[in-house]
Amino acid sequence: MKFKKSSLLVVAGMAVLLxxxxxxxxxxxxxxxxxxxxxxxxxxxxxxxxxVADQSTANANTATDxxxxxxxxxTAQNNQNANNAQTKEFNNQAQAASYxxxxxxxxxxxxxxxxxxxxxxxxxxxxxxxxxxxxxxxxEGNWSFTVRASAVQGQDPTxxxxxxxxxxxTVYLPAPQNHxxxxxxxxxxxxxxxxxxxxxxxxxxxxxxxxxxxxxxxxGKNE
Length: 223
Hints:
Blueprint: H1 2-83, E1 86-89, H2 93-101, E2 116-120, E3 123-130, E4 133-140, E5 143-150, H3 158-167, E6 180-185, E7 190-197, E8 200-206, H4 209-221
Parallel strand pairs: 5-6
Antiparallel strand pairs: 1-8, 2-3, 3-4, 4-5, 6-7, 7-8
């Protein structure tokens, strides 16, 4: 009878032990089961975060490229505007022509009684001196040109006038429909060319005689 009780106790103890191991295994499996989806979720979250970061970087690079292209386009546009003439539009051709003939330095031809200056290439100018300045004027086609110099500063308009005449033998200005005027003021370093076509007047300014001539030639191609 004692043997039977001992056997029963042993069997009961083993049952308890096996039950405990089973519970531990189940707990471990449950833990693994719980951990597995959490780990995959974390990985998905990390991958999504990386994708968002990569997209943000791509967008930033695209924005930088777009800004660079915009700056280049703006620079190109500014350069184009710098070479284009300013344009004034009038109601009719007569008003446009009158605007040009009223510009400073415009004359209809060599003025009688004034000293003449040979400017080369068969062109003669007239020299008008007074009030501390010297103005050398000549005409070529429908263009009227004047070089103004300061007598007070000892400036001579003749070399500049000869330079312009010589340059215009190989570089052709736009042909005014009625009138054009060029004023080269070496006393103030102001150089302008203004000409009329139909009811429009075009005008360019430059930092030197050659500069303003080049701008006028370029603008004439875009009329």
